[in-house]
Amino acid sequence: MVHLWQQKKRRNTVTTDNNSLDVLCKLIENPHISLRVVAKDLNLSYSAVQRISKKYKYHAYLSTRVQQLQPTDYERLITFVAHMMVQLEDDPTILEKIVWTDEARFHNNGTVNHHNTHYWSDTNSHWINECNKQIRWGINVWCCIINDRLIGPYFFENNLNGNSYLNFLKNELPLLIEDISLDQRLNMIWQHDGAPAHNMLAVRALLDDIFNSKWIGTQGSTILWPPRSPDMNVLDFYFWGFLKGEVYKEESNNINDLKNRIVEICNKIPSSVLKKATTSEVTKRLSLCLDMDGNHFEHLLKYQ
C-alpha cells in the first residue's frame, strides 16, 4: 500500500483567472524571477506558467551590457555629441573623414566554437585534438577604419606603451596609409581613445604636426573624446566583436596561426558594411545619445 505522503504531488496545469493573477503578481513583485521558481512556489506546472506569461504578453527581456560611466562623463559626452552634430550640419561628409582607431588583445584562450570540429569516419578513431590552455599567449592588434576602408591589421609584438605607439605613428602609419589619396589624407581627422599610450606629450605633439591639430583624443586635442565611450567608436561597437567572433571559431596553435587568421578575416569584410558602420550607424548613435542627454542609449538601438 502506498501512503499518501509517498505519492508525488501533481502540479496544477489549469490556467484559471486565480492562477493567472498569482503568476502575474509573482512577476510584478520580482521581475528577475524565473518561471520555474514561479511554478514551484505556486504549485503549478511549468507549462501552465509559460502559457499564462505568454497570454498576458510577458517576455523575458535580456539586459544590455554597457560601460559604467563616472559622474563627470555625462557632460563630456554630451559636449562631444553636440559638437559632432553641429559639424554634421556644416559638413555632411565629416564622418567619412574620421579615422576610427583602436587596439585590442587577441589570445589563445579565446572562446572557440567546437561545433564544427569533426572527424568523419565509419568507425570511431578516437581522434584527439591537443591544445595547451595552461600557457597563455596573445598579440596586440591595431586597426583603423576610415569611411568604407579598413587599414590594418598591424601587430604590436610587445605591450603597447607611449614609445611603441610613437614609433608606430612615425614609421609604420605612413606605410599603412600610402595607398590613400593625398586629398583624403589632408582631410583626415584622427581619432583615438584615452589609453595611456595615446596621451604621451610626444604623441600629442606628433599628431598636431601630422594632422594639423585635426584629431580627436581625451587630452590636448581640438575635439575632446569622451572617456569610457566604446559605444561611439566603430571598432568597439562593431569591429572587434565581429572579428573575435570569426577568429575564435577555430583554434590557433601559435602566434603566426593567429595572425594569419586575423588577416584572413579582415580581408573578407565588405566595404559596404564598413561604410554603414562609420556613417549611418554613428549618426544614429549620436542622435540617440543627444536624446538621452548623455545617458546610456544602447538598449534603444534595437528599436531604431
Main beta sheet: 6 strands, mixed
Indicate the low-confidence ranges by residue numbers. 4-8, 112-119
Question: Given the structure, what is the number of helices?
Answer: 10
> Briefly, what CATH class of the largest domain?
Alpha Beta
Task: Please state the structural category.
Answer: alpha/beta
CATH topology (fold) name of the largest domain: Nucleotidyltransferase, domain 5
Q: In the residues, how many domains can be counted?
A: 2
Written description of the protein model:
The protein is of the alpha/beta class. Mean pLDDT is 84; it is low at 4-8 and 112-119. Helices cover 42% and strands 12% of the residues. It has helices spanning 17-29, 35-42, 46-55, 73-90, 162-176, 182-186, 201-210, 234-247, 255-268, 271-291; strands at 98-107, 138-146, 149-156, 189-191, 215-217, 223-224.
